[in-house]
Structure formats: structure tokens, C-alpha cells
Amino acid sequence: MLADAVDVDLAPLRRFWHPVAEASWVADSPVAVTLLGESLVLFRSGGAPRAFSDLCVHRGTRLSLGWVTDDGCLQCPYHGWKYDAEGTCVHIPSQPADSQRIPPRARAIAYGCEERYGLVWVALDDPMRPLPEFPWFDDPEFHTWSKFCGTREAGAARFAENALDLAHLDFVHPGLLGTHGDTIIDPYDVEVDEGSVTMRSSKQSVGSETFAEGHETIYRETSLELPYTFTLKIDGHRGTTVIWGLHHPITSDRCALWRFESRNHSFDVPDQDFIDFLDLLLPQDQTVIESQRPQMIPVDLTEELHIKVADAGAIAYRRLLKEELGVTYV
Ligand code: FES
Questions:
Q1: What is the reported pLDDT for 175?
Q2: Which of 12, 137, 235, 329 could form a disulfide with 296 if both were Cys (CB 3.0 to 4.6 A apart)?
């Protein structure tokens, strides 16, 4: 089934903050990005990031083809109309400077835009929740690295839900994650609270370079916050590792990923060792998730099959998506 063969309503997703770019990508020149199918231009005015609809109201030209002027305006490349940081057109070069007659509707559509955690975040409508928090980022006892992991050909929710899925570990990541053959998923706690699903489990896990040594019982707590942000906390005998999964919904069936990882242990191990491990895992997930059809999650629980214990986290997530967003696919 193709993406456009299902009923996709992205409107409720407009009321959340979404990461759309590394802050470092938005420097001196405008940058084009797509969020929930909407073309945006990012630029900086007075050092702060701004997000406008990527369309000049004069003749529909892409503003991202323009440039940022010394006074922090975005200038259209076609006839040079200048838009200030709020999106108001402040100058039309074809008119004399001392008798500018600027139409009241000459405005770029400006969206909520913030810079946090080294990323630029955009909300297309009034956000119903604050920007997601990752307190370990500023915790002096933890060391944090982050990585942009590229784009994927599937909806963001498919990748987010994967974080709640314990049953795939032995099959998709053999020898890297999971338990080397003990595929039984023991009952685990699932808690639903204020727009998030949290599941807690502890199980003897096979060793990996990052999370455990040999066979060790590790404690995992995964919280998936609407719509697509997961926090995975892993306690092993070395210490605590916290993984933050961020998803940029480019369209209903395309997304981009960031991963942050904070740890309070193994400070002598180079970050690159952890990044190399992530680079082994992510393509394994990518292969199976990009094969899923439809590419978005059907929130109606009758659309796919669910196993009572192993899929408890995913069931709670889909119920939450349905109740809070009122969507049929996401
Ligand atoms: Fe932008 Fe004319 S199209 S100034």
C-alpha cells in the first residue's frame, strides 16, 4: 500500500515542536527544509533562527533562493522584496525609497522557531506541549554526543514505535542487542501519563560494547513522548546510558533522525566507538522499518495484529495517538 492510499491527516502534528535542522546548518544563508509536507525557509536574524513559509507572496518564488541582508531581513531573489524577522515586508525596491506603498498582505508566513540542544525546532501552529526536555544534556555528571542519522523512507511514528519494541532485538540485531536466543518477552510495566508512554523492564541481556558486559541484567526504561520523541534509559553495572531519539517528520512517509547519547561512565572510551555501534544498529532497523506497509502507523488496533505482552508498549502508544491526535494514520 502506498502512502497516498491511506487517509493521512497531518494537521494535529502541526501543534508540536519538531526538530528540522542542525543549528550549525543555519548560518549566513537561507536553508530550505520540509516539515509535515510544508516547504519552509530557515534563516537567522540578529543571531536567532527564524522559520517562514518558503514562498514570496508577490509571485510565489522560493525565499530560500534569496539571501539574508545586513539588517537581518530575508530578501526575495526575484524582485528583491525584503521581509523582516517577523515576516513583514519592509521594502520593495521597484518603488522609490521615500514613497514605499507596501500592501498590508505583503507578509511572509512566520512560524514558531527555537534553537535548543544544537538543533532548530519549528512548530507550525500553537504548540500544545512544550519543547521536549533532555536534562542529561546539561548534567555535568554526564557526557553527551549527538548525531544526525539521515533520512528514512517511512513515517516518523514507525521509527519512534520501534523504540518500544523489545521482541525485535534478537532478530534485527543478533549478537548486538537482545539475549542470544531467549526470545520470550516477560511482562513489563507500561504507564501512560500526560502524552507519553513509559515501559520498564529488566532482563539479562547479552553483552555489547556499550550497554553491558557479558551476560548482565540491565534495567531499561523507555518513554515515548507524543508524537515521536523517545528516551531510552539503560542501567547496567558500568553506569547509566540515556539515548534520545528525535524524528523530523518531513512528510507522512519520510522522516529524518537524530540520536543523542548521554553516559555517566566509560569516559575513557572515545565517542566514536559508541557512534560506530549506533551505525551498526540503525541500518538493521532501517531495512525492516522501510519495508513496513503502510509506511505510517494505523492507530486503529484492528488494522494490524498485536501480541498481548510483547506489543503492550506499542498498543499504548497507538491508543494515545488516537485519543490525543484523533488521526487514523500517523
Ligand atoms: Fe518575490 Fe517578486 S516574487 S519579490
A1: 82
A2: 329
Closest C-alpha to 313, from 233, 223, 180, 232: 223
Calculate the alpha carbon distances from 231 to 36, 127, 140, 221, 223 in Å.
Answer: 22, 20, 19, 8, 5
Give the pLDDT confidence score for residue 40 in this predicted structure: 98
**CA angle in degrees (0–180, nearest 5) for 18-23-25:** 110
**Does ligand 1 come within 6 angstroms of the Cβ of 244?**
no
Residue 262 has, within 13 A of its CA and on its CB side, a CA count of: 16
Q: Which residues of the chain have pLDDT under 50?
A: 1-3, 209
The answer to whether the CB of 61 is under 6 A from ligand 1 is: yes
- Which 3 state secondary structure label does DSSP give 208? strand
pLDDT reported for residue 71: 97
Q: Which CATH architecture has domain 11-123?
A: 3-layer Sandwich (2.102)
pLDDT at 19: 98
Residue 3 CA, chain-centre distance (Å), reads 19
Q: Count of CB atoms within 10 A of residue 270's CB?
A: 10
Residues 6+ apart with CB under 8 A from 191: 197, 198, 199, 200
Spatial separation of the C-alpha atoms in residues 46 and 109, rounded to whole Å: 19
Phi-psi bin for 228: left (phi > 0), alpha (psi -120 to 50), beta?
alpha
CATH T-level fold of 135-325: Naphthalene 1,2-dioxygenase Alpha Subunit; Chain A, domain 1 (3.90.380)
pLDDT of residue 236: 84
Q: What integer pLDDT is reported at residue 2 of this predicted model? A: 47
pLDDT value of residue 204: 61
| DSSP-derived 3-state class of residue 299 | coil
Q: Compute the distance from residue 58 Cα to the ligand 1 centre, in Å.
A: 5
Taking the CA of residue 79 as reference, the ligand 1 atom at the shortest distance is 4
Cell digits of residue 212: 553491558
Domain ranges in the chain are 11-123, 135-325
Q: What is the pLDDT of residue 1?
A: 44
